[in-house]
Structure formats: structure tokens, C-alpha cells
Amino acid sequence: MSNAKKMMYINRKAPYGTIYAWESLEVVLIGAAFEQDVSLAFMDDGVYQLTKGQDTSGIGMKNFSPTYAALGDFEVNKIYVDKESLEERGLTLDDLQHLVWEDEDEDWAEKDSIRLVSRSELSDVLADQDVLFNF
């Protein structure tokens, strides 16, 4: 996978009310299926996409949040969450789904996929990508 392009999907919008969050997730899964080096970033209202216990029954939309738990199965394990965006919304890491992947090099040890980063750290990560997709 050394020559795979580094592709970052930046999620800035709330999970429901627009199609952006669902479309981003679909495109990420397609990219992962083609063995791209896929990362995700969640910032601004995008951090709400990863919150636990989402209930969409009142808005008549399918709750797709459980799909994030499958990302590790597709070797998508670099999920960056902007710490300041969480804090500005009164959220902590504990409010987010626990997303993990299994490291085959360490006897399938389960590891966290979410990396809590500051805005400046996230800026450095974004600068290192080959392609950025904004949703």
C-alpha cells in the first residue's frame, strides 16, 4: 500500500438534515475497498456524527451511525477528532462511539481508531495528505 494516495475525508456537518455525512461515509467505504490510505477528520458540527446513542426516529431518517463501527474492518483506523470542536459543543471523548480496529501485527490486538487532536495538530495531518475531500 506504499504507493496508495493518502486520502482525507473532512466531515464538518451535523449527521442529519443534509446528505453530506452519509455520502462521506459511503465514499470512505468505497475508497477503503480499493485499498486507498483513507483517513477521516471530524470538526465543527461534524463531531456529532460520532456521538453515541443517536435516535433518528423523530426525524424519519435512517440511523447510519452504527456503520462507523465497521470502519475498522475496512482498515480505516485513522479517525481524527478536533478537540476544540468537541469542547465548544460541550462534548468529550466519552460522548463518542468507541471505534476500534484489530492490529494483525500484534496478534489482532484491539486498538482505538479515534485520535483526539488539537486544531494545530489536525492542520499538520491535513497538510500531509495527497487528496482532501470536504463534506
Count of discrete structural domains: 1
Q: In CATH terms, what is the fold-level topology? A: Hypothetical Protein Ychn, Chain: A
Strand order across the largest sheet: 6-3-2-1-7
- The value of Rg in angstroms is 14 Å
Say how many strands there are: 7
What is the CATH top level name?
A: Alpha Beta
Q: If you average the pLDDT, what whole number results?
A: 91
Gross morphology:
globular
Give the biggest sheet: 5 strands, parallel
Low-confidence stretches: none
Fold blueprint:
Elements: E1 6-11, H1 20-33, E2 37-42, E3 79-82, H2 83-88, E4 100-103, E5 109-112, E6 114-117, H3 119-127, E7 131-134
Parallel strand pairs: 1-2, 1-7, 2-3, 3-6
Antiparallel strand pairs: 4-5
Briefly summarize what is shown.
This protein is of the alpha/beta class.
Keywords, please?
single chain, 135 residues, alpha/beta, Hypothetical Protein Ychn, Chain: A, 5-stranded parallel β-sheet, two-stranded antiparallel sheet, 21% helix, globular
